[in-house]
Amino acid sequence: MSSQPEPAAPHGAPPARPTLPRTFAAMLRDTWREFLDAKVLYLLLLAIALLFGTALTGRIEPQPAGRQYLDIAARTLAADLEGVDLASETLGDVAGRFNGAIYAITTAEPLTSDLPDGRWKATLTRTFVPVVGVAEPSEELASRFGRIADGELWRVEEITETGSGWAREIGSQTWEMTVAPGRDLRLLWPHRFSLFRDGVELAGTKGAPLGLEVLILQKLLTTGLGGTILLLVSVAVTAAFVPNMVRKGTLELLLVRPIPRWQLLLFKYVGALLLVAGLLGLLILATWLITGILAGIWTPGVLLALPSLLLFFGLLLSVSVLTGVITRSVISAMLVTVAYWAVLFIAGQMNNVAVESRIREANVGKMRPVSIADSLRGKQPRREEPLKPGRKPFYQTAVGRTAEAIYSLLPHTEDLDNLVDRQLMRDYAVAGPFRALMESGEFSWRRGIVLTLLHTATFLAIACTIFARRDP
Amino acid sequence: MVVSVNQLEKHYGVNRALGGVSLDVEPGTLFGLLGQNGAGKTTLIKILLGLVAPTAGEAFLLGQPVGTFSARREVGYLPEDHRLPEYHTSRSLLDLYGALQGLPRRDRSRRAAELLDLLGLAGREKLRIRGYSKGMKQRLGLAQALLHRPRVLFLDEPTDGVDPVGRKEIRDLLLEERRRGVTIFINSHLLGEVEQLCDRVAILRKGRLIVTGTVPELTRQKASWIVRFDRDPPASFHVPGTSLEAVDDSGTLRLVIDSIVTPAGPDGALDGFVVAAGAAGLRLRHLERERATLEDLYLRIAGEGGPT
Predict the structure, then answer these.
(1) Which of A43, A305, A382, B160 is geometrically suited to a Cys-Cys bond with A222, CB 3.0 to 4.6 A?
(2) Chain B contacts of A32, Cβ < 8 Å?
(3) Kindly report the CA angle at B92 between B89 and B93, in degrees rounded to 5?
(4) What is the average pLDDT across A240-251?
């Protein structure tokens, strides 16, 4: 046989070239199969469906509160709270805005019903000291009534001053008003929240402000417990992807293909990320639908949880991929990823405490901000107390310093979470301490995003380099 | 040359897996690579596939330096102890590898159907690989190597775990591929199979190429014959320059010719033996020249110095 003629290409046609889209699509299908094979997808879909089903047995119903909210609106007229940000002003600042008059609702009748969409007929009286104060024109009163901080409880539709001239002389004014619900009334109105057709009360019989209920529900299901469980399951499933791919006997079958090695790894990563994005999308969409159907609130703020959670998962997955490439072990990939997550969480929380202590230190003697929702429920603002003598604020202790130092090296994923929280608080008229913390400038979602992406890219680059250089 | 290897070396730390191997293989050859475990066969193949970088020396595949994408497009590989991802079905796995190899969708699906049919896996395309027997996995492994109609095939233990009928089918398939001009490298411990199948054989030991040649070249004839007479020869029967020994109880004998003491050479000694037997009244019923098998050669070469 030593001198066989050189044959033409054995099968005629020239060999095909792999294209990037074809390679990507193939790796995506491969990842999809592997994910499906873990069976966990069905469990997750079932869990989301159950969640959805359970939520749809729920009822959110407004409780009578019109008179109470008219009273609050009248009381706050005493201070000029236009444009007040309770998050940043002290009581001293607020006191300076008092105009020396007392307002009260004397009669109030619902024109339709005592519900957040009902109009009211009310009588308002104003008492002032004649020498110091002056009579307030109806138009001015109408423009001020129902506005608290940056929220709008009521809107005055009609107003007539009914008090007599002599009463005005001795410091008493009376108006007959027709008021309609303002922009934020519904969000602040107390609602009962029950599941299983009134079987389980979740907000007590008096209810809680609707905005707060929606916020807690959305947070619980997305960046809170719901998202955490979904990401945990996703970490467990995807931890097997790379070790399965790089194990002996499987790896050679991939590496022998005419494509660069980094593509295999990166496309597997992107495939897994897209799958988890789909699941997160479903969860967040379900949450949005649940709160939309139950509460009729369709503000899209909660959809921000998708990029936030996905960026976070992308980071975790890059750690998992890197560990998988180095150790080729599913258990190691899973453990290291969960450990990294724990470090991020603990460092994030400790950093929050440090930042809070910093803000507290800077605000000693000033009033602690109270959320509108809290103040409507009668919670009084408290003054920020100085620390006991000899005690250092947390951010100055060794632990606090270490926590802040460690956090500065980490990708600030806490900021991504805060981005969602802040949006939800804005959407649902819930302000207060959290908001003060987050708007203090210590948190920056831009920095959070950039740092997270940077860390992710670094982990992936290291993984790809090792993967491309190592002999199978 | 399909494969051209020159002074190839590979070291893993202080371990030398290959120590200066040179080899040329012509197109359309069925090439058997033999050697003990750890002799360097798999390392040599992995270097040729571009999976492992050589420490020194050079290697060319289809005229190009090994490891280039254009070379890899024309190569099919079945690794030893391969583990096909178990979450795939045979159909989806071939689709994956076909796509990574660059085949368009229609080609992949047509070629997969053809190969699954050819390798006796038709009707099981929808079954997950997890449920496959060893032999089925081996057939599927072979299918993925052939999928993109490569010009060169590297097969590590291609019939491992396959039943005898299946082995025959695979041998026929490989011969058919060779007929089409495909060059095939086989690593196998089944020496009988290699002897039956391969045009050329190389034996590696401790990372060195000890011998290479065609099977007939390597299994040169020995100067011995298997003989049977119509009856047992008497104890006094003896022809100078030869000796007879019993092979079994049925009267089969081995005639060994001591060519050194026979002036006429082995053939002359045989002639003398036949004439002497006739004169002694013995009638010849069977006479067959004994051959060295590849196994004899292999055991002699690879076994030298004990296991590596």
Answers:
(1) A305
(2) none
(3) 80
(4) 93
| Residue of A361, A416, A405, A402 lying closest to A384 (CA atoms) | A361
Phi, psi of A156 (to 5 degrees): -85, 125
| Structural domains of chain B, with CATH | 3-218 (3.40.50.300), 221-291 (3.30.70)
Give the chain B residue nearest A468 (alpha carbons): B51
Cβ of A18 within 8 Å of Cβ of B99? The answer is yes
pLDDT score recorded for residue A381: 65
> Which residue in A25, A253, A257 is closest to B79 by CB distance?
A253
Chain A residues closer than 8 Å to B126 by CB: none
DSSP B37: T
How far, in whole angstroms, is CA A394 from its chain's centroid?
A: 26
B64 touches chain A (CB under 8 A): no
Q: SS3 helix, strand, coil % of chain B, rounded to 5?
A: 35, 30, 35
Question: What does the alpha-carbon distance between residue B264 and residue B274 come to, in Å, rounded to a whole number?
Answer: 14
Q: Average pLDDT of A286-296? A: 91
Beta bridge partners of A194: A59, A201
Query: Residue A39 — very low, low, confident or very high, per pLDDT cuts 50/70/90?
Result: confident
Select the residue of A1, A15, A27 nearest B214 (Cβ to Cβ): A1
What Cα–Cα distance (Å) separates residue A349 from each residue in A310, A323, A395, A415, B191? 20, 25, 13, 11, 67
Contact A1/B70, CB-based, under 8 Å? no
Tell me: the pLDDT tens digits for A268-284? 999 999 999 999 999 99
Structure tokens at A330: 């599913």
3-state secondary structure of B116: helix
A140 interfaces chain B, CB cutoff of 8 Å = no
Q: Are A36 and B87 within 8 A, CB to CB?
A: yes
State which residue of chain B sits closest to A11, comparing Cα positions: B149
First to last CA, chain B: 31
Residue B276 · residue B239 · CB < 8 Å: yes
Inter-chain touch B77–A256, beta carbons under 8 Å: yes
Can you say how many angstroms the Cα of residue B73 is from the centroid of all Cα atoms in its chain? 24
Q: Does B114 touch chain A (CB under 8 A)?
A: no
Cα B165 from Cα B55, distance rounded (Å): 42
Question: For A18-32, A51-65, A127-141, B17-31, which range has the lowest pLDDT when averaged over its residues?
Answer: A127-141
In B, which residues are within 8 Å of A21 by CB distance? Answer: none
Q: Rounded mean pLDDT of B95-106?
A: 94
Q: Residues of chain A with pLDDT > 70: what percent? A: 86
Judging contacts by C-beta atoms under 8 Å, the chain B residues touching residue A16 are 73, 101-104, 107, 148
Phi-psi domain of B67 (left: phi exceeds 0; alpha: psi -120 through 50; beta: other): left
> Comparing C-alpha atoms, which of A112, A108, A97 is closest to residue A74?
A108
pLDDT of residue A253: 95
Query: pLDDT digits over A355-393, tens only?
Result: 888 888 887 877 666 555 565 666 666 777 788 888 888
Tell me what the pLDDT averaged over chain B comes to. Answer: 87
The nearest alpha carbon in chain A to B70 belongs to: A258
Q: Strands (DSSP E) along A182-280, which ranges?
A: 190-195, 200-201, 208-209
Name the one residue in this structure whose structure tokens are 């945990």: A232
What pLDDT was estimated at residue B303? 63
Nearest to B181 among A10, A27, A257 (CB): A10
Q: How many CB pairs under 8 A join A and B?
A: 127
Q: Which of B70, B101, B173 would best serve as a mutation to test chain A binding (most A beta carbons within 10 A)?
A: B101
